[in-house]
Amino acid sequence: MGGPGSNSDGPSPSAEDPNGQKGEVGDNEAEGVWSPDIEQSFHEALAIYPPCGRRKIILSDEGKMYGRNELIARYIKLRTGKTRTRKQVSSHIQVLARRKSREMQSQFKYLPQDQATKDKVLQSMASMSSAQIVSAGVLQNNHMDINQGIRQTYPKPSLWSGLVGQPDPDIKPFNNPPFALPGQSGLGGAMQAANLNAVASRTVPAVPATSAGFNQNANVGPPWENRQIASQKLRLIDFSAFLEQQTSEMDNYSKHLFVHINQSNPSYNDPMLESVDIRQIYDKFPESKGGLRDLFENGPKDSFFLVKFWADLNVNITDDAAGFYAVTSQYESAENMSITCSTKVCSFGKQVVEKVETEYARLENDHYTYRIHRSPMCEYMINFILKLKHLPEKYMMNSVLENFTILQVISNRDTQETLLCLAFVFEVSTSEHGAQHHMYKLVND
């Protein structure tokens, strides 16, 4: 693959034929050796880029159109430095699809299900393309095994290094484990794989907001519902962590954003949030009373979110002792209340430091706004950023960040009800476009 624009003639019809035709390629296809690092990158790419038939995917920052197999081949090249062509990717998908089909069909022989049910599942499988069959295993209901991804043994300079416009809208929060074709046992697992379309579009059911002003349309709900970080009682508008320092001209200050979320312009065209099983991240946060598990069990369940940040550390810190490190956040509610914001910094799942702040409502345009403005970072966080900056390589920074998390809980000061609970995990951004993030709904299915 010569570069981003190579193999631009589109995906191989045999690989993603919407009619399910899978071509004739033997299991011992002459496609070169797929070493473990290539295989891992291949499965990571399957999770990032969903099957799209003969359609093409546009990378927004490039404005170019790519077939899915082109993007997978491109990803392998960026991740491993090794070349796999679009046709080799197509061939590999077909081989894996046949193996997966045989595996699931063989399971049916020993299941105590009626023949009609088995026939229905087999018929569903027959209508799926090779890409859909393979991706069904990788998606695994959008629930990732985080610990396996973290403990992988391959060198990992950065999962997204070199990806243009990182992160892609379909990026998952954690690495998929190598050879990510989980063995779904029994008929239920096969039916999950067969029902790929339902899995791929799976979202948390919409619950109409009940607070005045939040239920703008009783049938549709507000545009941020299930699309942004928002519960029935509180919505995040803006969140940023930044550094301000003097420039060479002593009267001027520059502002650098380490991370940033802006939700000020919700739209019904925004994608629905994907869901992540909260049990996968319990060990990354405190287990004691007031920890993530305890909070989730007490609910309300619509208040819990995971945010994966790709933090922008591409800043020249002129003086470690100077500069102003701070966090600004803004929230909105339909009711007047006082809120408490607890921010816990955690290392290896244990709380290191906690900051608690109280904010009061301001009535603005028929809703109440809460602003925690330019709240200074604690000394621990400042030192952590400086030490991270002094590491020579980004993969070293990411290795440290694997065990660093932040839990932020916004609650009603008077009733102690949880209004929002945000679990933050981090990597270092490799994009030229600064800080990036991706948001997920935390569920327990």
From TrEMBL:
Pfam families: TEA, YBD. Its main location: nucleus. Keywords: DNA-binding, Nucleus, Transcription, Transcription regulation. GO terms for molecular function: DNA-binding transcription factor activity, RNA polymerase II-specific; RNA polymerase II cis-regulatory region sequence-specific DNA binding. It is found in: Nucleus. Residues 27-103 bind DNA. One of its GO terms (biological process) is embryonic organ development. PROSITE patterns: TEA_1, TEA_2. Residues 1-14 have a biased composition (Low complexity). Residues 1-31 are annotated as: Disordered. Residues 27-103 form the TEA domain. GO terms for cellular component: nucleus; transcription regulator complex. Gene3D superfamilies: 2.70.50.80, TEA/ATTS domain (6.10.20.40). Signal peptide: none annotated. This is Scalloped/TEF1 protein. It comes from Phallusia mammillata.
